[in-house]
Amino acid sequence: MQNSKFNTKEAIAIVLTVAIAHSLLSLPKNLITNQKSAVLLNIIFVTFIALCFVYIIYRLLKNFSGKDIIDVSEFFGGKKLKIILGIIFISYLSFSASIFLRNFCECIKVVYFPNTKVNFIITLFIMAIILACSLDYNANIKTNYIIMPIVLISIILLFVFNLKNFTVDRMFPIFGNGIVNTFVTGIGNIYAFGGIIFLYFLPPLLKEPQHFKKISILSIIISALYILITVSIILFMFAYFVNVDEIMPLFSAARNIEFGSFFQRLESIFLLIWLIIIASYVSIAMTFCLGIFKKITNTTDSKPLVLPFGLLFLGISMFPKNYAFSYFLETHIYPLLNIGIVFVLPFILLLLANIKSKKLKKRGERYFKV
Amino acid sequence: MRDILKSNFVRNAFIILVLISLALGFSKSYTSYNIDNLDFALSLGLDVSDTDESKLKVTFEFTKSSIYSPESNGNEDVKPIINTVEASSIDSAINLMNAHLGKEVKLSHCKLIIFSEQVAKKGISKEIYTLMNNVQIRPSTNIIVTKSDALSYIENLNPTIENHITQYYEAFPESR
User: Are the beta carbons of B29 and A113 separated by less than 8 Å?
Assistant: First the structure.
């Protein structure tokens, strides 16, 4: 059992995966579209809010030590609420990961496989993910932990190698479309920290649960630094980029790297690294879906469910009729769902559960079945 | 049922089926990227059409890929091949050229994009966005605005020192 638990670094890597994966596609472009030149200031502001939010979540979860959000929902609203919340989280995770996979495969198709149907590329990914999830429970978590530093280094290299192409003046005017747009409507950009969703499920899975606070804070800080770097690359490199480019912005940035006439077209190496992290992200989403499903149905073994869930992911990613629709889902629907399901819903639930537990405590009843 | 699924035969048959379907799925892309089916454009010239001012006259400059093969004796005629089509946009010009050549025009080795002054005066933002969104065009591709026609500019580009036009294109836009 101890083997199926994660250490602190693996847990941080899990939360980071979401920010990393999404910043490879539309996230930086969306942030720049929303905030224009004030995007860097906005990210710093949003990071501060995310840190406060995560700290509140830590305090709220502290009263239910070793329990995740599904356990808390059972405590607050019984089995019915537990099942409803479980379904909501499974739907959200499978939707976000599948749509993301679809869009990434569409980009791969444009770049490397112009005459191959996108379904074949998605199927190849899903097969790898099913295989990864069929292995040991935390095999993909450990793989993700190994890949994470490579991806982080690749982005830092991307930043350094492109320094000569930067026009730093593009960050001015520093307040972009105004203070209201940067600090009030810009709060919506908190969806960039979508990895927080995994924090709700981590407490019972940690080898050292006492480090939960450290995991929460560190993962947000590293995510923020990562997003800041990726957004800086795109903001400083491309004028009016957001209005014209429809493929991966970071891929376009990688295409600019050249060292004389010998080292050219290094974007293939970057894409290879990113392919692995995308597969890792989707497999982590599937692992958590399986974990939640196992919990709400009280099943002992989740391995027979790997194939059905794989097919579910495949079905959802094939659902959008075309790239325009899947792009719309990723850029317009995903942020709204993210704010609702990752930030609002669990916060309200945890708040109410805490009030209930305090009331029960006052009455002298045992407030949580252990 | 479980025994059937667990049997080696069914498993192997399933793996072979998956491999065959994937091979079929990806073979089209492999074929389209085969060098025999590609024509590499070295430069692209954009003029205003002589017949319709709203259209573009797009000139493609190709090279014979056979002169770069190891079997080539080096004495072959290295003169580039120049083809021109008229279309409403760069993308439709590429499609027309694909149909005309029976091969796919590849712009991944395109070193020069030449706009005539007339086109430049009308505004080239639309064309630039098209080229930016084309994954084949390298960010290091040089853009030239010429006072003459782009077609005549390409026709009159005759390197004297370099043997191949490609080497000339590598060097001359950066020369001072």
Answer: yes
